[in-house]
Structures are given as C-alpha cells and as structure tokens.
Amino acid sequence: MVIFLIILASIVSTVLGGLFALRFKDKLHLILGFSAGAVLGVALFDLLPESIELTSSVYDLRTLMLLVAIGFSIYMLIDMAFSIHKHSDSECHNLSHRGKISAAAFVIHSMLDGFSIGLAFKVSPAVGWLITTAVLIHKFSDGLNTVGVIINSNGRQKEALRWLAANSIAPAVGVGISSLLVISESTLGLILAVFVGLFLYISTSELIPESHHSHPTIWTGLSIIIGLSVIFITAQLTL
Question: Cβ distance 114 to 170 under 8 Å?
C-alpha cells in the first residue's frame, strides 16, 4: 500500500511538471533554461553524491569519474550520429530524434529512481523514505525536462504527452524490477555514474545552447541559475 501511494505521488509530481511546461511553452527559453539548470543540478547534487556513497566501499573516485566520462561520450556520439548532417533547426529532420533520445534518457532515469526506491526499502524503511523524498522532490523537474526536450526538438504536444506518460509510469516499472532482481548497491552506484555523464551532456551541450538560441537575455541565464539552485536546495533538505 505504501509503495502504491509513493508511485501515485511520483506520477502526480511528474505530470504536473510536464503540464507546466506545456502551459507556458511561449516562454520556452526560460523553461529550457530552468531545465538546463535542473538537469545539471540533478547530475551534480543528486546522482553524483548518491553514486559516490553507494560505491565508496568498493570503487575509488577515479573509477566513477571514468564512468561519468563514458556516459558523456556515449551520449555525445549518439547525438553526433543523429545531427551530423544538420544544417539548421528548421531543415534538420534528425532534430526530433535528438529530442526522443533525451526524453528516453529521462525515462530510464525515472525507472532507476523507482528501482532505487525499491532497493532502499529492502535495506530499511528509514533509507527507503529518504530516497523516496529525494525522488519525489525532483520528479516535477523530470516531467518539465521531458516535455521541454520534446518541444525543443519540434515535437508535437501529443508526442510530448506520450513521453510524459512514459516518464510518469517509469518509476513503477523500476519498483517492479527491484522486487524481482537482486543487485548490489555498488553496481547501482556505477549505473548512476554513467547517468551523471549523460545528464551533463544534455544540460551543457543541448539545453543551455538552445535556451540561448533565440533569447540570449539575462533572464535566461537567471533561469538556469534558479534551476540549479532549486535542485541544490532540495538536495540539502533531503540529506
């Protein structure tokens, strides 16, 4: 029953974030700026510390940084494969593929969120609630980010809603998988390190440049800082 309520809360938080992005898409540059800061914040203040904590007794920091670099490089190569013939945003048919890849990364990350919740409750209720709190706080930005990358890649509203739906139910899938599989905390930490690299690339090489593409204003820069700050503050509150 408790897990069901957690999944429901995660769905609600994710959907609200996505609907917010759709409602204010005329301010997309600000939304993308906030998303860029939020994604960067999730990578630096959420995933990376969690990865270090889970692997500290088995792997050293250099191993994690190598996996971060690998994650960054993997996404970069995939992105280059889809955008190698790019001439302009209006002419490039591959732009939508980039958006889908980004959205898929968020969906997989959300599934890992659910997976983490399931594993955490196997350790103890206290650890489970700590991880759950952290997940629920940033699910709003996950929904916003998922819709943001689809809209930014010239995707339609229906497509954005489909990806939002996938993102919202992904934690439930993760929880289900965690009940079937046995995986060590250190292995989960290594997986999170790879996602740090993925999210660093999405933020610095995709969302930030696109947020400044048509609106290089101080407000866009401030929205990036706000997104980064929000995740930092929420991460501190859940320590």
Answer: yes
